[in-house]
Amino acid sequence: MKITVVDSHSAMKRVLTAPAAERPALLRSMLETVKEMYRHAPGEVDLVALHLQSSGFPLDRDEERCLAALEALAAADAWGRLRRALEGAASLLEAAAPELEFPDITFLLVLGDPGDPLFMETSLGVTGFGGISGQILVTLWPFPENLARLEATALHELHHNVRFGPGGVVWDPATVTVGEHVVSEGLADAFARQVVGDDLGRTRIGVPHLGDDAVFAKLASGFDVTGMHNFPAWVHGDAIAERLGVEPVGLPTGAGYAVGNRLADAYLAATGQTAAQAVHAPAADVIATALGRRG
């Protein structure tokens, strides 16, 4: 598995210091490095528009704030840390499951939008997209907590990339279940925790609800709900669902991550596997084992 971490520090600095009229083209050039993650989208994707809609850094305001954040990432050796963490974790996955086929991966780190309360407050300044084999995009604001968890964030997305990669779990947007998404989040967190420990390895938005049995029961009632369009409500929670125009179902932000961690922990404890070994574990098996339904 070859890992390429894009030098987005230089690319973003060029965007943020360029005349306003030149910024969209420069941003598009950077985003082209991961355009294949949208290969299943119908029609041509406007990469710049999608970046802005997804809480990526703005092109018409907050330049100084974003430049300062960019330098904070550089001072923290973000790109070097990402490269070392991803390469080490790739070797760990390959050793744990040598029979699997592993994709080559391009990783892109971008700044988020400091003027977007949903991103900065609800999502705690970090989102990731690693479910399309070969491409990973992380959008981040360098809060101290996010800098501390930089490796964990990357490893979480790496686990997704391998899980849904060649020969792995098939993700059909029309038929995939809430249970599959929740399990994948739990196993990805378990993998990050395997490498960096529990304190830093969990996705932050799920931590407040880890012990909430009512949240677990509510989400478990939706494990069989199908269709990717339902996931913001069931996995990410009401606030994010509302932003995306999806009907809320009464769940807090990060519910799917909290429940996924509990499912993954129970499954790994019962089977004696590591999260690296369980990268392709069927969601139905994880859920059945965690709920004590296996005979």
UniProtKB/TrEMBL annotation:
Domain DUF2268: 102-287
Protein name: DUF2268 domain-containing protein
Domain of life (superkingdom): Bacteria
Record organism: Streptomonospora mangrovi
Pfam families, per the entry: DUF2268
